Amino acid sequence: MTINNVNEQAVSPWSDPQLAHVSGFRTAEDNLAYEITADEIRGKIPDDLCGIFLRNGPARNELAGKPFGHWFDGDGCVHTFRIENGGVKYRSSFVKTPKYVEETRAQAVKFRSYGHNAPGGFLKNLHMPANAANTSIIHHGGKLLTLFEGGLPWRMDLDTLATLGPETFDGALKKMDTFSAHGKLHPRTGDYFNFGMGMGARPKINLYKISPQGSMVARSALPIDQMAFCHDNAMTENYLVFMVMPVNFTNPLKVLFARDTIDNNMEFQPEHGMKVYVVSLSDFSLVRTLEVDPFMFAHSSNCWEEGDELVIDVVAMSAQDGEIGTRFSRNLFSQPRPATGQLTRFRMNIKTGQINREVLPSGIPSEFPQWDWRLTGSPTRYTYTAGICENETPGFYNAVQRVDCQAGEASVYDCGPGRYTSEPIFVPRNAEAVEGDGYLLFVVYDAGSELSELMILDASNMADEIASVPLRNHVPHGFHCGFTPL
Ligand SMILES: [Fe+2]
């Protein structure tokens, strides 16, 4: 097997089962568009499944044979699977950001990114990591937005995947604003809430409210104690919850003068404490600040209110989990095992400040928690994750699981040796279906064929493969996905 444009020394996928996933990091083809007909599909697309499955992720992780410094630096490529009338129309396109366009032209690194600096000294690195538009994706208010927390969202055309440029919501977002990869859709109002770490003399989190029509109707700033890493938040019926973990620069001047990379200079600093900010959805006012024992995490799952308590589920990482994930993300072509954690439930009393922490049952180490989005902010029983099971090739996410938080058990679907996956998403069978009655959609990459497929699994038993939609290309291992009904 040959791997295009990848350091040959580092790549020997099938000689080392721990590295069988490596070919899934090779660069994607741009601007693909074709149809997979019903007779090509293994199984049958359910009649009641109709919509567009959306995927985003780094799909070019190297240039001219030289790997980027970190997985976060790969150029974003959007893949859409339009599921309709028993068939699927597939389309892909890189997001044509300045980073992608200029570095494609030069076939060399031109911009500072998270894991590497631009050549040319500190004058060439006087900016945040270049926007790779590679992290997440949402279709809201008639706009398809690719999300990258270090910059503005980039908009694409849902039908053609043409890049339409940075989205400012009619100027409400400014050039230096950031917009996270993890906004939350309020199921009752249709509003979309997002946030971004604010630049300036005092650390803050900028808060944004986008109407169902796609306009920014409110914006505010929440002062915080320390500038820190905050990738995700959570939302209840009435509140936003920010758990700001103490991951920060060890020596900001070295980063400023490009004597170090951003990635290498970041460190978990538990001695600085970890605060939880609870913000009212109605006016973005601060309702309560709590303190929690510091821990590392990237993603939270669902969150809801029970009396004075907020219940929030988080994929908590140990220090060792975090180190494993960081090392993996720096060495995609030679390191096994990405970040995983343990689904953990926090109960936070916003009257007394009391916080209880409980590890939830989990069959396998996992990440990328998902739930039934109709119930965001309401109690949920099930969380779905991508994880790593101990089959013959456990070097990357190779399974999905459903954690039944009520029964205290987990159901694992093993993708099989040499077959890998990324974040799954739950799609209810129909608008009236009860929680858990529906489909789990996720992309599977097969290292044997070097091709990908869209898997549709029965979420009610996590075992029945309802349909597998074969692609004629691979979808590189990615981050987040979404679904928009037709
Ligand atoms: Fe994320």
What does this structure look like?
This protein is mostly beta strands and 486 residues long. The protein has one domain: Methylamine Dehydrogenase, Chain H, CATH 2.130.10. It contains four helices and 36 strands. The strands form nine sheets. Strands 1, 3, 4, 7, 8 and 36 form a six-stranded antiparallel beta sheet that branches. Strands 2, 31, 32, 33, 34 and 35 form a six-stranded antiparallel beta sheet that branches. Strands 9-10-11-12 form a four-stranded antiparallel beta sheet, with no helix packed on it. β15 and β16 form a beta hairpin. The longest helix has 12 residues. The N terminus is likely disordered. Bound molecules: fe (ii) ion (FE2). The site of fe (ii) ion has 8 residues, from β23. Belongs to the carotenoid oxygenase family. This is Lignostilbene alpha-beta-dioxygenase. InterPro entries: Carotenoid_Oase (IPR004294). Its cofactor is Fe(2+). Keywords: Iron, Metal-binding, Oxidoreductase.
Sum up the structure in keywords.
486 residues, mainly beta, Methylamine Dehydrogenase, Chain H, 6-stranded antiparallel beta sheet, 4 helices, 36 strands, disordered N terminus, binds fe (ii) ion
Which ligands accompany this protein? fe (ii) ion
What is the CATH topology?
Methylamine Dehydrogenase, Chain H
* Secondary-structure arrangement, i.e. CATH architecture: 7 Propeller
Q: What is the count of DSSP helices, taking H or I runs of 4+ residues?
A: 4
CATH superfamily: YVTN repeat-like/Quinoprotein amine dehydrogenase
Structural shape? globular
Whole-number count of domains:
1
Cα separation of the termini: 40 Å
Q: Kindly state the mean pLDDT as a whole number? A: 94
Q: Tell me the Rg in angstroms.
A: 21 Å
Low-confidence stretches: 1-12
The profile of the biggest β sheet is:
6 strands, antiparallel
E-strand count: 36
CATH C-level category: Mainly Beta
Structural class: mainly beta
Cofactor: Fe(2+)
Protein name: Lignostilbene alpha-beta-dioxygenase
Pfam family, one: RPE65
Keywords: Iron, Metal-binding, Oxidoreductase
